[in-house]
Amino acid sequence: MAGNSPAAAAGIRSGDHLLTFNNEAVPRTDTAGWIGDFVRNNGERPIEILVRRNGLDEMHTLTPVMACSIPIRLVTDSTLNAFTTGSEIVIHSSLLRIARSNAQLAMIVGHELAHANLGHLDKQRASQALGWTSGAVIDIGILLGTRISTGLTFAREFARAGQRAYSVAFEREADYVGAYYAARAGYDLAGAEEFWRSYSLESPDSIRLATTHPVTPVRFVQIQKVVAEIADKQRRNEPLIPELRVTAVETDPTAQPETVR
Asked: What is d(CA 176, CA 172) in angstroms, rounded to the nearest whole number?
C-alpha cells in the first residue's frame, strides 16, 4: 500500500480485514471487484470502513481521490506480459512472480498507463495504416505493369514495418513516464530497476534478442537513471514532472518480442 494513498491516510494498513463499507458487508468472494464497484459508484464522498485488526474492530474514514479511470484486469497466464488496449490494462499473473515489490508492479502498471495517455496506440495504428497504403501502391503498380499479382505482399510488409517504426522509442518513453506515475502515486522506487534483472533470469533471450522492445539491460539502466532523477527532484521538493525530451530522442536499434508492453 502506497504511503500517501487514501487508504494509508485513513489509517488502513496492509493485512487489515475490511468488514463493511458504509455499513454494507464486504463479500468474501470477488472482494476486489466488489470494492472497485463500490468506490466507483460512491465517487469522491467519504466512506466509513469498519476494519478488524488484531481481533479488534475500529472505524476508519476514507476519502477517495479521483484518479485513472482505466480499469486494471489480472488474468492467469504463464506468459510474461502486460498490455493496454487503451480502454483497460491487462496484467498477466506470471509478472507477480518476478515483481519483488508493490513498487515494481506499480511501475509496470504505470508503463501501460503511459502508453494510453501518450497516445502510442493511435500513433502506431496510423503508422501501420500509412505503411499498408504505401505498400498497396507498389502492389497495384506491379499488377498494372506486369499483370503479376503480389498478393498484397508489399502492403503487409510495409504495414508491419510501420507498426514497428516507433516501437522502441514508445517503450522507452512509457518506461520513463510510467516510473513517474508510480512515484507520484506514492511508491518508493528505490531498486525498482531490479525487476528487469529478474525478468532477464526468467527470459534469458531478452538480454540480447529484440525486435520491438529494448533489451532488458537497456531497460534496467534507464529505470536506474529515472529512479535517481526522481529521487533528486524529491530531495529538491520539485514537482515530479517527466521530461519527455530525455527519452523521445533516445532509441535503441534492438527491441524485444511481444512481452511487457
From this structure: 6
Nearest to 216 by CA among 175, 187, 179, 247: 175
Chain-centre distance for alpha carbon 36: 19
- How many structural domains does the chain have? 3
Q: What is the DSSP letter of 257?
A: S
Query: What are the tens digits of pLDDT across the range 117-170?
Result: 888 777 666 666 666 677 777 767 777 778 778 887 776 776 666 555 557 788
On whether both 173 and 90 belong to a single domain, the answer is yes
Q: Beta strand pairing status for 89-92 and 82-84?
A: antiparallel
Q: Which domain holds residue 51?
A: 6-62
Note whether residue 255 is domain-resident.
Answer: no
Grid coordinates given for 157: 510488409
Residues 156-214 have pLDDT tens digits of: 776 666 555 557 788 899 999 999 999 988 899 999 999 999 999 888 877 766 566 77
In this structure, the answer to whether residues 206 and 216 fall within a common structural domain is yes
148 and 230 co-located in one domain: no
- Is residue 139 within 8 Å of residue 123, measured between CB atoms? no
Does residue 259 form part of some domain? Answer: no
pTM of the model: 0.62
Burial 93-113 (b: 16+ CB within 10 A, else e): ebbeebbebebbbbbbbbbbb
The verdict on 110 and 170 lying in the same domain is yes
